[in-house]
Amino acid sequence: MEVEKGVDAVEGLPVLYVKRLSALVCSDLHLGYEGVMADRGIFLPKVNLKSIKSIIKNAVDVSQAENIIIDGDIKNEFSTVHNEELNEFAELVGFLTGELELKKIIMIKGNHDNFINRIVNSKKIEIHEQEAAMDDVLFFHGEELPRATESTRLMVMGHVHPAITLYDDINVKEKLRCFLHGKTRDGRRLIVLPAISYFAEGVSVNLESVSKVSPVFKSYADINKMDALCVGEGETLSFGSVGNLKKIDMR
Predict the structure, then answer these.
(1) pTM for the full model?
(2) What are residue 238's phi and psi, to 5 degrees?
């Protein structure tokens, strides 16, 4: 599905493809999550990295992308680096540069990514603090306001983990991850990425406030005017504006 001219949401996947950069874009991997939770006494099946690799491989197969941009929250822990994060980071980089033969991995540090510079050992990896401008696109994680320039036409962010929640006739709930797509108050275009992490279900933007999650939605963009593009089984569907979704009695 074309979201912007030359920018596609890869059908059924929480991944963008920017044609002019020949790059996939994803966000919020939270590598090492299961290991971190195990240390806290919560034992989960180790599926996150396997799921992420499968999603990225499918997206590369469809798009033939040569590069990948990871828009923040590569790892999970805030104040340290867990052994499981180290192991999964190395495995992911090996997969991207080896099996998928991607030319460049661009990583934008999010609020979970302290110390990420210390574990980068590949010349194919490029690290940026909070944001990176490429062509007329500004990629930023989202816990801080972006520093857009006059040449910035499109901004792409993560951090929020957007989703919408729906209820059926017998009140069974289903949460769907979604892209958010719309304008900023100064007329630029903005895309918010869904989390690629298996365990990050997301914030239901039609039921919950996201103003506390990111300052972008306090002063920079009106989430009610943004469209929700939901990631389903093999396809991406537009559900209209968040404002209209809030008016519908989902229960």
Answers:
(1) 0.94
(2) -85, 130
